[in-house]
Every structure is written in structure tokens, then in C-alpha cells.
Design goal:
With 245 residues, the protein is of the alpha/beta class. The chain is built from 7 helices and 13 strands. It has one domain: Class I glutamine amidotransferase (GATase) domain (Rossmann fold, 3-Layer(aba) Sandwich), CATH 3.40.50.880. Helix content is 28%, strand content 22%. Strand 11 and strand 12 form a beta hairpin. Helix 3 crosses helix 4. The longest helix has 17 residues. It starts with 5 loop residues before the first strand and ends with a helix.
Length: 245
């Protein structure tokens, strides 16, 4: 029986009076169904030795959706339309991204994960699309507005010759969309590989290793959409390949 790759998933802070760490089950299920072993990573930002011990046992890194990335991470002050942030998660995920890139460990990032990946690599974000890109289409279809998370609400154009194009085998797709931030300045070691009709970057990938990020939520669609399932399968295959004999 082939060994299954261990995929680390940093948790997120639940913003209540008694803060605790959580992670959405759909991410776990999508990775498990693709053949991976999900490993939840605690937000021990003040314990780099323990985080390194965890990292050394991983075969891949998954960055999930969640709160806004702190603009201090890309040299900006917070603007009035910034949402809630999660500084501990920012710190832990940034550390894991940099360790993963140094070790060429595969990375798959979703929604906030794409944004964090871009910031960790030296890029920046629009703190709110509506405020900073007035001509943009609607991207913020949130469950709080009674939105169905599986609803595909706009198309994306996939750039030919990219890893994302190879995975999808298609020049366009329809995706769900639950974000109010987006990439402003693309990090120098990333390539934009898909775009919304308004030019907002919808997917990125690293130039030197398997690291991909998508701005939508494929975990909500993987059970019914083969193209979205292939994202998780390609990631798991890359992590498995890196395990060696």
C-alpha cells in the first residue's frame, strides 16, 4: 500500500470573547478524498521550534480561507474597510510558506491563502475591492448574505501554458466567489495564471516549484466538479512525489 502524504493546514482564530482555533471541515474532506492525510497546525506563533518540528514531518502545505491578512505585512496602514484580521495565523502561515518554498514543499492556497501566499512572497493586496477597484464586478458573495457557497457566480480566463491550465485542461471556468480582498501587486516569484472578467487575479503559481493559489473555494465544489477535484489531486500527487522511496 502506497504511503499517503501528510498535508499541514494552519488553523484560524475564532473571534469570540474566548478565542479558540478552528478549521472548516470541507477543506479536510477535500484533501482526504484526494488521498492526503490532513494535519492540523496550531497557531504557536511564539514557539518556532515546535513549528519547525511540525514542518519537518509534512509533505505539503495547505492554506485555507479566512480573515483578512494584516496590511502591516505589506507595509500599509489599516483602512476603514479592512475586515477582521488574525495576526497569529498571519505569522504562522508566513513562516510555513517561507520554509515550504525553501524546501520546495508543495503548496496549495485557497482564497485568503492565495492572498497570504502573495504577501509572504513580497506582494500586496487591495484591502477592499469595492473601495479600491470601483469598476470591478461583485466578488463578495458571502454566506452571511444568504449566499450558497457552491453557487458559481462568474467566469475566469485561464492563461495558456500554466500549471493551472494543465490541471483544468480548459481556457475558462465558472467559479464561486467569497472574498472582498484581492492581489494588488503580484509577488515577483509568482505568475498570474487566471483572471476574472474585470482583471482581478484569480489564480497564481510559483515559478520554481509546485505552489498554486486560487481565489475561489474549490473545496466547496470538489465533490461535484471534476475540474475542482483535480486541483486537490494534483496537489496530493506533487506531495506524494516529494516523499521519495
Amino acid at each position: 500500500m502506497l504511503a499517503r502524504p501528510i498535508i499541514g493546514i494552519p488553523m484560524q482564530t475564532q473571534n469570540t470573547s474566548d478565542a479558540f482555533w478552528v478549521m472548516r471541515k470541507q477543506y479536510i474532506d477535500a484533501l482526504r478524498n484526494a488521498g492526503a492525510i490532513p494535519w492540523i497546525i496550531p497557531l504557536l506563533a511564539d514557539d518556532p521550534e515546535t513549528l519547525r518540528e511540525i514542518f519537518d514531518r509534512l509533505d505539503g502545505l495547505f492554506l485555507a480561507g479566512g480573515a483578512d491578512v494584516s496590511p502591516a505585512r505589506y507595509g500599509e496602514a489599516a483602512k476603514p474597510y479592512l475586515g477582521a484580521t488574525d495576526p497569529e495565523r498571519d505569522a504562522v502561515e508566513t513562516a510555513f510558506v517561507r520554509m515550504s518554498l525553501d524546501a520546495r514543499l508543495p503548496i496549495f492556497a485557497v482564497c485568503r491563502g492565495l492572498q497570504l501566499l502573495n504577501v509572504a512572497c513580497g506582494g500586496s493586496l487591495h484591502q477592499d475591492i469595492r473601495a479600491e477597484v470601483p469598476a470591478a464586478i461583485k466578488h463578495d458573495y458571502f454566506a452571511a448574505d444568504l449566499h450558497i457557497r457552491t453557487a458559481c457566480v462568474h467566469d475566469i480566463a485561464v492563461k495558456a501554458g500554466t500549471r493551472i491550465a494543465d490541471i483544468f485542461g480548459s481556457a475558462s471556468l465558472s467559479v464561486n466567489s467569497m472574498h472582498h480582498q484581492a492581489i494588488k501587486e503580484l509577488a515577483p516569484n509568482l505568475t498570474a495564471s487566471a483572471f476574472a472578467p474585470d482583471g482581478i487575479i484569480e489564480a497564481v503559481e510559483a515559478k520554481a516549484s509546485f505552489a498554486i493559489g486560487v481565489q475561489w473555494h474549490p473545496e466547496e465544489l470538489a465533490a461535484t466538479e471534476p475540474a475542482m477535484r483535480r486541483l486537490f489531486e494534483a496537489f496530493t500527487a506533487a506531495a506524494t512525489e516529494g516523499m521519495g522511496p
